[in-house]
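This part of the workshop introduces the protein records we will be handling. A record pairs a protein's sequence with a compact description of its fold. Backbone structure tokens are a discrete shorthand for how the chain folds in space. The question running through the whole workshop is how a given chain folds. The record below serves as our worked example for the rest of this section.
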Amino acid sequence: MTESNVIALTSSRERTASTASGYLMLFILLLSIIVQIWGIAQLANEQDGLLAIVAVIAAPIVLVFVACGFYMLQPNQAAAITLFGDYQGTDRATGLRWVLPWLMRKKVSVRATNFISDKIKVNDLRGNPIEMAAQIVWRVVDTAQALFDVDDYKEFIRVQVEAAIRKIGARYPYDDFDHQDVTLRGHLDEVAVELRKELIERLSIAGITVDECGFTHLAYAQEIAGAMLRRQQAQAVVAARRTLVDGAVGMVEMALASLSEKKVVELDDERRAAMVSNLMVVLCGERDTQPVVNTGTLYQ
């Protein structure tokens, strides 16, 4: 038997429970109190003894029977009804409710709840240790599954969130210095959508869905953070130098073309090379240039 078949056989499904409004039963409760007071008063006056005795005996029984069946549900709250361990249905109607006293009620909140995971260490696609944490907004959509298909659905959520983060974190690199692949740092929204799909699939067995998902922490682990920072700085310097050199080459080409077009000066190959060298030094140097006066010729 496969795992999917086992889940299908043991999966519970929520259904509507047979319950009653508590306001009618509250009226009966008050009526039983009045009847008991009347019976006591009749016995005290020694009038209608048999009827008074029946009222005094029956009224407390009705009072206890009715009082034990009351419960109250607030908005976005449900109650799972069981009879000697057998699931009878779920009541989602708000207000004062009533069921038979021997039916047990287990209240479950179906409100949206926010959960923030702990920071966990994960190895990304390239094996680099990184730290990740996520926040999810979840809610119970099937009370029967949440109560009867998992032992503790809140603890189940915590474990499954950690497992999903590890799986998604290992699927992508933290960063791609060539900017060609989907990365955790550069594509947070896309990765968050994939994490939400993974969580919905994992939590469906517990009757829970995920409305929103996102990362609250994403960084290299401390043992490699310094090395990765130096690598990023070096790559930033290289990228800046590349941009600077590309711009300098374009300016040199423009200068030489303008001089040739306007015939300001005739340059042979050697003088052209010397001029290119000087311009590149001036444009690409980190410090201010110091002019040097040449009183001779280029060949001296």
Remarks:
- Residues 84 and 193 are 42 Å apart (CA to CA).
- The chain is about 50% helix and 20% strand.
- The domain at 117-220 is CATH 3.30.479.30 (Tetrahydropterin Synthase; Chain A).
- The first strand starts at residue 20 and ends at 21.
